[in-house]
Amino acid sequence: MWCMPVILMVYFLQQLDKSSLSYTSVFGIVQETHLVGSQYSWLGSIVYVAQLIWQPVSSYALVKFPVAKWLFVHVLMWGVIVSCTAAAKDFKGLLAARFFLGIFEATVAPCFIIITQMWWRRREQTIRLSAWMAMNGVASAVGSLLAYGIGHIHGSLKPYQVIFLFIGLLTVVCSFVVLLVLPDSPVKARFLSHEEKIVALERLRANNQGTEAKVWKWAHVWDLLLDPKTYLWFSLLFLCALPSGGISSFGPLIIKGFGFDPLQTILFNAPFGIFQVIITFAAAGIATKTKLKWPVIFALTLPPIGGAAALLHLGRGPGMKNKLLGCYYVLSFSTGLQPMLYTWASQNTAGHTKKTATTAVIFIAQCAGNIVGPQLYRTNEAPYYHRGLIGNLVCWIALSGLTLVTAAFLALRNRQQAAKRRFLGKAAIIVDVSLEDTKTAAKAQAENEQREKAEGAEPAVLNTKAFDDLTDNQNEDFMYAL
């Protein structure tokens, strides 16, 4: 009631602000600001160049500074930047504004991953992370409808200027909710009593992921660099982000290329966002129920592979509008990949510095993919965009294969963790209580204690290192989530 509404609001505003460029593309920003060649593509990519630059700074700051206060400053500033974008008259002005937008938006998702790990058990994290990621779809649908309404305004300002002003000022006003409502951590939450704060921390013991610490540990960074998982997460997020970056910037232009006018294009872009919300929640529900991520991720790669192949094969004649639009909507299954991958990576990392650094790695990968993605598209390649669609197709195929490799590696790591526990006199095979629901968690915990007794160990030895700020490699009780 206190944390999630603020998280959902901020992520909605972030996506709305970031997508404002794609809405303005339909209302002539390319012509009004005299963009040529790949300049429009660079307006999409420069946001992620800035995020790439700022990500290491943000990761260090998230360990050192209060999370909610750090987030407030960034939300306020990016709202100011979007508002000022309305004054840009040419490529240089737009590029500068988009660069600073990327700087101030860089910290949002890393903040929310840390907050999610700080408040919820691993079983609960999937649906909550998916909920704030689903705001991408809500923002896409609402933003399309807002742009449709604003497109009918005829005044002294251009439609693209009104869009930037409206969305930017809305963000400035809402930023103060973050300052007034969102706590920095469970122990600083004004709405919890002292006893409730203890419960809020203790219920996370089974996660074995540690809790907030204000000390940057270089040992965790070396652990990260030597961990093969790090490079798997980077590759998975890069392959996911590259198609996403192209579609988010060029989606409305792709639809326009099917033969629709500007206002129709904006309206037909709205269902893509609605499908994104449905798919994201459905994927999260299935993953939570089955306690498995990899089958869901693998399944989500298959429809976009088919949709991209169909768009490459079909022509662009007047009678093809409906078929092409249907194929484009099939690509929306790919939007469920990002929250699943975020959750998969965050649930398989422990130690505060390592968690923060891992978040930085996956967002660097996302930034790199989003930089490259729009560059595969060119406005002069309309309406086919063959190069962009081929690039997307290759990425989704590679992602499906790498998902299977990652699942096999995590299964191997669980066997290695079991061997460590056996060597230390603990039960090798235990149930991951953090992935169980409330009804079965207590039963699973009792079963684990019985297994410890059978091995001659005290039941209390399990999860005793949960709050020692150890990495997943250092804590033999940590179990990897497949």
Automatic annotation (TrEMBL):
Membrane topology note: Multi-pass membrane protein
Stretches that traverse the bilayer: 67-87, 99-120, 132-150, 162-182, 231-254, 266-288, 294-314, 389-412
Annotated compartments: Membrane
InterPro entries in UniProt: MFS, MFS_trans_sf
An example Gene Ontology molecular-function term: transmembrane transporter activity
Keywords of the record: Membrane, Transmembrane, Transmembrane helix, Transport
Any Gene Ontology CC annotation: membrane
One matching Pfam family: MFS_1
Top-level taxon of origin: Eukaryota
Predominant localisation class: membrane
PANTHER family: PERMEASE-RELATED (PTHR43791), TRANSPORTER, PUTATIVE (AFU_ORTHOLOGUE AFUA_1G06550)-RELATED (PTHR43791:SF59)
Family, similarity comment: Belongs to the major facilitator superfamily. Allantoate permease family.
Name this polypeptide is given: Major facilitator superfamily (MFS) profile domain-containing protein
Species in which this protein is naturally found: Jaapia argillacea MUCL 33604
Lineage: Eukaryota, Fungi, Dikarya, Basidiomycota, Agaricomycotina
